[in-house]
Sequence to fold (91 residues):
Amino acid sequence: MKADDPRMAAVDCDLARIGYAHGQNGIAIAEQWITAHVHAVLAVQKGRAANPAAFPGFGDGSPEETARRIVARLLDAGWRPPDTECLEANP
Fold:
């Protein structure tokens, strides 16, 4: 997506805007966010295995919470779920 693309209005995340401005596509930006979240949750889980009180502000570090964090980042980067017509279509 280019900076003058009207869909940029749906991009709330400044880091995603920077990525798009530097020629990255949405897939590359998504891969970076997902990789960062996976590394973070693994570090939290490892830290909590050694010290259960580690990273108190991170959340529970569950797969479900991590998935919610990833989905939130993707939505902030301008990703949107498919429309309901697409979701209801039979393959």
User: Anything to note?
Assistant: The radius of gyration is 16 Å. The chain has four helices and no strands.
